[in-house]
Amino acid sequence: MARFLVNRLGQAVLLLAIVSMLGFAILHLAPGGPLSQFALSSQMTQEDLDRITRQLGLDRPLPIQYADWLWRMLRGDWGNSYRDGEPVLKIIGAHLGATLELMATATVIAILLGCWVGILGAIRRYSIFDQLATVGAMVALSIPTFWFGLIAIYLFSVTLGWLPSGNRHTVGEEGSLLDMIHHLIAPALVLALVETAMWGRFMRSSMLDVINQDYIRTARAKGLPEWRILSQHALRNALLPMITVAGLQFPTLLGGALVTETVFTWPGMGRLFLDSIGYRDYPVVMGILMFSATMVLIGSLIADILYAVVDPRIRVG
Amino acid sequence: MSDETNSVKAVPTLATGPSRRVLMVLGAGAAAGLAAPSALLAQGARPAGPPDRPRGQIVAALSQEPTSFNPLMPGIEVDQAVWWQVFSTLWVIDPEGNFVPDLAREVPTVANGGLSADGLTWKIKLRSDVKWHDGTPFTAEDVKYSLELINNPNFRVRNRVGHSLVKDIKVVAPDEIHWRMESPYSPYLSILALTYLVPKHILEKAQDVNASVMNTAPIGTGPFRWVSRQPGDNIQLAANTAYHGKGPYVERLIFKYIPDLTVLYTQFRTGQVDYTGIQGILPNFVREAKTLRDRTVVVSSTSSVEHIAPNLDFGPLTDKAVREALYMAVNKKAIIDALNYGLPTPTETFVPQDGWAFQKGLPAHSFDPAKANALLDAAGWARGSDGVRAKGGVRLEFTNSTTSGNAVREQTQQLLMQDWKAIGASMRIQNMPPAVMWGEFWQQSKFNSALVSVNFMLGADPDVTPRFGSGAIPAKGGRGFNTYQYQSAEADRLLTLGATQFDLAERKQTYGALQTLIRNDLAILPLYQGVIAEGLKANLRGFRPNGNASTNTWNIREWYWA
């Protein structure tokens, strides 16, 4: 296991270096730059823009800028945003809470609901429930999230007035748990809708694989009650592939849901990334890129380790 | 606002009030007696009266996020929404074009001795009852420090236009400051109306003035104090009860960032926000918004002019006859009515129509494809077999660029393409994301033509040297943003003259001649003056659109709940 971990960590460092190099190059070579937002301002001349470009060090050759960024990064300095001057880590931290709140809620709903639908669909294969679930999943996966978001806002906020049409809190009245839940319902459900469909499909397929195995037939032949066969023999094995799915979902959990966050004015990581790209806020974009890449690597590493822990047939190393 | 009796009229005869800016006030507010522009003015005059002490809160929605809080550092329009609340300037320009003193006791003029006759010596008297938000008194030392900081080469200042001419700053008394200008420069009065002053006692202690506390928790002398910022979400300000002017009348002001304009409108509709700022309500929602209960919609013109920007150094567009024919072939009415819901007003110049320098009687655009065809025929542009004209081997074809994803502009381009095809001009669309479009492509004049909205005014001053001066072409090493590459000796002469005149009537004449010249040369093909539709809860009073300020949030200190 120790050798496996060392190997994986080595690969991870190499991958991160490649990601950072590619990300930095693509970002800086793309036309435009952080000062484009000022180009139409009647208060700033080309001379001003050139001066600020020099002051920010953006006129230096790209390899030198990269080396400077990397050296600072290795010393724990992720840089400061070009927009508000705040440290990148602080900015990521400020948006991470909102994203975690939304994504974790949606994922918990999706896992519980998705697994239930998937299991039931597999046990009662081709039943009306299974067919409805299949059609529902296809619909949920085919229609874009923003559409569900807008429909939810129109229905529950504009028409019925039951739920707020966005935001994380009632503006100016932060701190109330009930208020937070009230605001969380619509975006979490919209996001969970798509995730539920996905988890449902994975779970159904995994469960179908398992319930046709010989050991399930053996269990039935032994006369075990059906609930016990399902819970103790089928489900435990069917859940194994879900570990991989969960591992790959982990970075998404922290990366935010760009569309849902925009539609529901949710101040999370997805929107931060979109805004930062739009303004070419290089330090923040690079920070998010490195953070996400690290999370992907950690997620898949945890999934591999967990798999080995729960499945005795797998040995790592 | 401070003592309005000391205000100086910047407009000799044009003070017709904001009625030309405020095109309509409709919605449920109309039923409540707010239907006419005059009624809106009455709101500003507070017929019902504001409360004795700050009450309630305002949630002002912004479609961009304010992120730059040091008002002397680079920032965009949305940042000014915050600067207006936290900071103060020496004087401001009200909607009627009057200079109104704020931190200064009076606006300097030659008549009151504040300005020497040659415009070189400035003597400013300051209020002595002003305090920074931390309780420290505001003095002339702060003004001196701010002006010196702007000229400090190590400071990442937004710009030094005008400020770089300031020399020999002398603090005569805690409430009086004098300085000398290296050369006379009349637009400086307007520039100072948008120059927010910063506290010396805070910044002089900062290790790095580019990364001081002013960037994250600014301290000013404005009507609202900084409370907190939730990045990507909101900024909270609280009433400065020791404010030296009128107001503020609400306890708390919250700027809420909502990036999507459709979502922003929905939240206004559902009552989650009290005011829709900066980009306001999308034109396609305006009609519906006017029917909402307990909401007021104010449509007012902005200082920006939507225009077709020709690159005057690019092939066929160098020919004035081509520009005239192209302009004549544009169906401006269709663009305004069909694509912009009839809201904007057509214009022929770069000066806003309620600006004091606006030149009336410029040749009016007329949509006449037949005349445009005849003009091109006469100028020797002959149609080829594919219908596209050419002259001396130069084909009448070019690209037009704008920000991709801007639906109205993209539809405008479709109309332009059709209109121009009819006169044998071939236009192709080449749109780009904002960071690309307004980067080097725009700044270094790499476009053929562009569709763009620009506020040409320097603050509220019509000095457009950086836009049309021949020494302001970045692609030719100039210092400015004359990306059109317009060069005219006469324009240069008028620009120099206008910037050194201190008599407003004379200046108006100079800038009138400049507008006539630029209209005749068609350095830009003006389409219309921009409009903004802003929504407010009907019982929120005091809103006064101000084209002379950088944003209509300029006077939130006077807003109150009726």
Please give a quick description of this structure.
The complex is a heterodimer of chains A (317) and B (562). Chain A is mainly α and 317 residues long.
- Categorize the overall geometry of chain A: globular
- For this structure, the quaternary state is heterodimer
Q: Please provide the ordered H/E string of secondary-structure elements of chain A.
A: HHHHHHHHHHHHH
Largest interface (C-beta under 8 Å): A-B, 58 and 69 residues
Could you say which structural class the secondary elements and strand pairing of chain A correspond to? mainly alpha
Specify the number of helices of chain B.
Answer: 17
The tally of beta strands of chain B, per DSSP, is: 23
**CA distance, first residue to last residue of chain A:** 5 Å
Termini Cα gap of chain B: 20 Å
> Tally of extended strands of chain A?
0
The gross shape of chain B turns out to be: globular
Rounded to the nearest angstrom, the radius of gyration of chain A is: 24 Å
Helical region count of chain A?
13
Which stretches of chain B are poorly predicted, pLDDT < 50 over at least 5 residues? 1-46
Q: What can be said about the biggest beta sheet of chain A?
A: none
Per DSSP, what share of the residues of chain B sits in E-state strands of 2 or more residues? 15-25%
Q: Helix- and strand-based class of chain B?
A: alpha+beta
Mean residue pLDDT of chain A: 86
